[in-house]
Amino acid sequence: MKIRSLCLCVALLGITILFTHIPATADGATPTAEVKSTIDGILDILKDKNLSSLANREKRRTKMRDLVRTRFDFEEMAKRSLARHWNDRTPEERKDFVSLFSDLIEASYVDKIESYADEKITYDREEIRGAKYGSVSTTIISAKADIPIEYKVIQKDGMWRVYDVVIEGVSFISTYRSQYNRTIVSESYARLIQEMKVKISEINHSPGKNSPATK
C-alpha cells in the first residue's frame, strides 16, 4: 500500500511539473516578461512629455524603433513573409530585403501602437509550443473597444523574440505573405521592393494616427 501511495505521489508530481513548467531564457525570463518589458519601454517613451511635441516626433519614434529592433526577429519574419520566394533571392537581395522589411515592420508597429499610449494593456495568456515556440496574448483596453494583440515568439540567442504580431485577428506575416506573393507572381520582385519603399514613406509621414499596417 505504501509503495502504491508513493508511486501515485511521484506520478502526480511529474504531471504537475509537466504542466506548470514554462520554458524560460538563459536569464530565467518568460515570454510574457520579455514582451512586457519591451512594451512597457515603448509606453514609457510615449508618455514622456519631453518627447510629446511634434518637433520631437521623429526622436520619439526612433527611440521606439530601437526597442522594437531588440525584440523582433526581422530575419525570421522576412523569410516567412517571402515564403517560397525567399529561396529565389541572392544573398545580397536577402540582406537588402531584411533591411527594408525591418524598416516596414518597425514603422507599421510603431504607427499602430503610438495611438494606444493612454490605454491600459493586460497580459492575458502565455502558451508554449514545443521546445522554442510560444505566444503572448495581450489586450488593449480602450473606451471604444478592447483590442486583442498576440505576439508570436521564438527562443533565439537566449531570449524570446517576436516573429509575428496578430492585431485583432490579423497577422502581419500572413497578410504580407499573401500580398508579396501576389505582387511577385503578377508583376515582379522589383515591383514589390518599390511598393514597400512607398509604404514605408507613407507611414513615416503619417500624422501619428494608426494607419493599418496590412493595407
Describe this structure in words.
- With 215 residues, the protein is of the alpha+beta class.
- Helices cover 53% and strands 19% of the residues.
- The chain is built from 7 helices and 5 strands, in the order H-H-H-H-H-E-E-E-E-E-H-H.
- It has helices spanning 2-20, 31-47, 57-71, 74-82, 91-114, 172-186, 189-204, and strands at 120-129, 133-141, 146-156, 159-167, 170-171.
- The chain has a 5-stranded antiparallel sheet.
- Strand 1 and strand 2 (133-141) form a beta hairpin.
Computed structural class: alpha+beta
Helix-strand pattern = HHHHHEEEEEHH
The strand line-up of the biggest sheet is: 1-2-3-4-5
Fraction of residues in β-strands = 15-25%
Count every beta strand, where a strand is a DSSP E run of 2 or more residues.
Answer: 5
Low-confidence stretches: 1-23, 209-215
Task: Give keywords.
215 residues, alpha+beta, five-stranded antiparallel sheet, 7 helices, disordered N terminus
